[in-house]
Amino acid sequence: MLHQFAPAVPRLGLAAFRTGQEALHGVAWMGPATVFPQAVGLGATWNEDLVRRVGEAVGTEVRAMRKWNERVGLNVWAPTVNLLRDPRWGRNEEGYSEDPRLTASIATAYTRGLRGDHPTYWRTAPVLKHWLAHNNETERDTTSSSVRPRVLREYDLEAFRGPIEAGTAIGVMPAYNLVNGRPNHVSPLLREQLRAWTDQELVVCSDAGAPSNLVNSEHYYDTHEEATAAALRAGVDSFTDHDQDSSQIIARLHGALDRGLIDESDIDTAVRRLLTMRFLLGEFDPDQDPYAGIGEESFDTPGHRALAQESAEQAVVLLKNDGLLPLADDGENTVAVVGLLADDLKLDWYSGSFIRRTTLREALVERLGADRVIYAEGSDTVRLRAADGSWVQVPESAVAEQQDEGSFNPANATGRTDLPPVTTGDTPTDLALIDWGGGALTLRAIEKEREALPQKGGGGRRVGGLYLTVAGDGYVRAAADRPGGWIVQETFTLESHGESHLLKHTGSGQYISVAADGLKVAAQGTPFSVEVVRRGEDAVAEAARRAGTVIVVAGNDAHINGRETEDRTTLALPPHQDRLWRAAHAANPRTALVLSAAYPYAVPEADDRLPALLWTAHGGQAGGTALARVLYGAVSPAGRLPQTWYASDADLPNQLLDYDIISAGATYLYFRGTPLYPFGHGLSYASFSYRDLTLTQDPDAATLIASFTITNTGDVAADEVVQLYTRESDPRVTRPGRQLAAYRRLRLDPGLSETVTFTLPLHVLGFWDVAHGHWTVDPGTYEILAGASSTDIRLTATLKLDGEPPAPRPVLVRGLEAADFDAQTATTLVDRTKVRGDAVASGADTPGRLVFRTCDFGARDTAGTSTGSASVILDAARAEPGEATVELHLGDGTHLATARVPSTGGPYAYTAVRVAVPELPDGVHDLHITLRGALRLARLSFSG
């Protein structure tokens, strides 16, 4: 019962059950289904009602598909609520926002739709991914996120807390990474936080292979029995490991039982949770399950198609507009639609397959007619010549071969072995070469007939031929409709080799070699020369010169350079695509850039030069239609950025792994620079005025009511996303420059007004007070800011909260937990023990520094005598030989003590290091601690 694939138990009438069905923005991995915009696009709608309806549609299709495919499961692993702390994260498209409150509200809406509104039975049972502080793919199963208590409580936990407290999610999936040196799959926070938020039974499903990682890659435990027992005791209920083979997990559990590491009650607890979920899904009383009757008629419905288009429209963000948009349709003007994504819609790792789809090119042809739409993809047309002078040839039968879109499964390589291999000969085949950045190239056979459009609404590929790929037999074929697969087989790199190049296949790590029966991968490659027949920017410039307006569509393929297992190294637009918008603009100044992408780009020069820029996440099956309607004004854009767009890589922390957003100045909450586009930004074809912000405080209810009026002062009906932020005017600790407290998306006709009222619990003004170990709202002055983005503030009001100021840290009474610092440099948080607790670690080379504000060392006695000599006791550990030191100073530089920490024999072997302090200071001071050498510090205490 504790494995992902639980077997049937006939004697109890239990059917087989599988945890886990991907459903991030549609039913995934099970064939064709309605494909909605990526999660980050749903976050960009800032519309809880819309996202709830998308969740309802996805949950309904899960139920419908289960009727003909028993592999479709009702325990859905969605949504991903990891915060978009760093836009270089390879899975940026899976999250909703960098802000915890926006993420929590959108996640609650989506899970509410997935769950359904029946008081007893659930449509599906959503599991939130990935607990906790998971925002990097680089070495994701061995890296540790250093998360200080304030960031943990104010940031990472808040995203998960909303859906759990709302009762719309059944549980969580722990992430691969470690937090403060301890793997998430044995985190005490599962018990101390997650399960404390609700009385509902929650289910914790491990990530795939993670239980084995505890021993194999993380080396956190010596044996799998110890690791499995620790995960079970920590709260993991369902183990996802070794695919469908449950025997190894079961053997480990038996071994743990035999060794006394767990007992039957531990297993009973997990099984009870899993069976409770199955009860909620109606498995044991289907005659009472209100969702049991959902069938094929509820799949791919007109309503779902309309919702896919509506959500794609609401996700479009207008970044800049100098009057170019909306485009006017006078019946004559032509438009050039160019770029690598102009006639393509991209899927991602967690997409379903398209049943139907419309690219921007198709949508514009439908709106304007084929004679008024000029198209150029912008790929380079090249030919490859082998060292012997022969040309790379794609067999004619493969060039025009179509592949059924419905066969797409991201878990499998897309290459086919039933097509003939690519060969060499006297006649070259023109290939479309696209440089996706970072050296990653794709090559695609070019069809001779390129003018015909794909069938309207069809599921087939776009015009342009099939991608060169490498299948299991090692031969190169034109046999893939698109890049895909867990290991992408359709990407290559060019390595210089004298005056030629070696073509390296990324998926296998081998080189392309010419053999008698075709091209294949080998340890030694054949040198090729690359002949450019036509540059992509030349084709784009020609199309731009012939058109009245140019739309350049750039972006990413979600399987290349930024995806699961691969972070980005830069925010820059790939050079190939950068050349395309520059060529289009040079030929025609009426050029707009559409970024159809899973993440932000740094495009300051495009912002400076182009009259209009838009961004949309990959918009699902209706992405092209949605963009066309926005471009021509049928829809006024009202999407808002769910994360900061930075002007350059230099604006980001040096390390992707710097999870301390306070010290790093990361996200809009703490960023101290000027962003390219701020959090919450998005323009409209209408204009809106804000007036009359009033605040009313209800001390009895501990709430604050903020009210103001918004008016559509433009000429068109449009949505506006009103945003309410808070900030503390003179905080005693580092606080956000401003923080989202509430928002609402509303629609107004021209000239109409609406009064917007938000009721806020006063605790949203607070923070986690590490000095006293609780959430606190300090007395003082606060600003309440209403506006159209985090920087476009239209109204400000102040609020004064009375009360006693917080007391200083009572260090003589309580001592200091090292992790409860107010500021740090060059330290990391680590596990104090393998079970619970945190410590601070420093490295061998760079001194670590900790600051503790307002420490109360007591007062002089009535005779004016100081508190006198004392000792400071450090709980410290040091695995390395030799000694390290801990130095204590006051904020004014006064030296208090230096303690030498000897080797203790291991990282968890703490010892009490006592050092005399000749004279403790009196009164309140900041305490500075310097750690020199590799050591762990868990706690400080003082004694007389």
Automatic annotation (TrEMBL):
<dbReference type="InterPro" id="IPR017853">
    <property type="entry name" value="GH"/>
</dbReference>
<feature type="domain" description="CBM6">
    <location>
        <begin position="814"/>
        <end position="943"/>
    </location>
</feature>
<dbReference type="InterPro" id="IPR036962">
    <property type="entry name" value="Glyco_hydro_3_N_sf"/>
</dbReference>
<feature type="compositionally biased region" description="Polar residues">
    <location>
        <begin position="405"/>
        <end position="415"/>
    </location>
</feature>
<dbReference type="InterPro" id="IPR002772">
    <property type="entry name" value="Glyco_hydro_3_C"/>
</dbReference>
<dbReference type="InterPro" id="IPR036881">
    <property type="entry name" value="Glyco_hydro_3_C_sf"/>
</dbReference>
<feature type="region of interest" description="Disordered">
    <location>
        <begin position="400"/>
        <end position="423"/>
    </location>
</feature>
<comment type="similarity">
    <text>Belongs to the glycosyl hydrolase 3 family.</text>
</comment>
<dbReference type="GO" id="GO:0046556">
    <property type="term" value="F:alpha-L-arabinofuranosidase activity"/>
</dbReference>
<dbReference type="Pfam" id="PF01915">
    <property type="entry name" value="Glyco_hydro_3_C"/>
</dbReference>
<dbReference type="InterPro" id="IPR001764">
    <property type="entry name" value="Glyco_hydro_3_N"/>
</dbReference>
<dbReference type="Pfam" id="PF00933">
    <property type="entry name" value="Glyco_hydro_3"/>
</dbReference>
<comment type="function">
    <text>Catalyzes the hydrolysis of a non-reducing terminal alpha-L-arabinopyranosidic linkage in ginsenoside Rb2 (alpha-L-arabinopyranosyl-(1-&gt;6)-alpha-D-glucopyranosyl) to release alpha-D-glucopyranosyl (Rd). It is not able to hydrolyze alpha-L-arabinofuranosyl-(1-&gt;6)-alpha-D-glucopyranosyl (Rc).</text>
</comment>
<keyword id="KW-0732">Signal</keyword>
<dbReference type="GO" id="GO:0045493">
    <property type="term" value="P:xylan catabolic process"/>
</dbReference>
<dbReference type="GO" id="GO:0009044">
    <property type="term" value="F:xylan 1,4-beta-xylosidase activity"/>
</dbReference>
<protein>
    <recommendedName>
        <fullName>Exo-alpha-(1-&gt;6)-L-arabinopyranosidase</fullName>
    </recommendedName>
</protein>
<dbReference type="GO" id="GO:0031222">
    <property type="term" value="P:arabinan catabolic process"/>
</dbReference>
<dbReference type="InterPro" id="IPR026891">
    <property type="entry name" value="Fn3-like"/>
</dbReference>
<dbReference type="InterPro" id="IPR008999">
    <property type="entry name" value="Actin-crosslinking"/>
</dbReference>
<keyword id="KW-0378">Hydrolase</keyword>
<dbReference type="Pfam" id="PF14310">
    <property type="entry name" value="Fn3-like"/>
</dbReference>
<dbReference type="InterPro" id="IPR006584">
    <property type="entry name" value="Cellulose-bd_IV"/>
</dbReference>
<dbReference type="GO" id="GO:0030246">
    <property type="term" value="F:carbohydrate binding"/>
</dbReference>
<dbReference type="InterPro" id="IPR005084">
    <property type="entry name" value="CBM6"/>
</dbReference>
<dbReference type="InterPro" id="IPR044993">
    <property type="entry name" value="BXL"/>
</dbReference>
<dbReference type="GO" id="GO:0008422">
    <property type="term" value="F:beta-glucosidase activity"/>
</dbReference>
<dbReference type="InterPro" id="IPR013783">
    <property type="entry name" value="Ig-like_fold"/>
</dbReference>
<dbReference type="Pfam" id="PF03422">
    <property type="entry name" value="CBM_6"/>
</dbReference>
<dbReference type="InterPro" id="IPR008979">
    <property type="entry name" value="Galactose-bd-like_sf"/>
</dbReference>
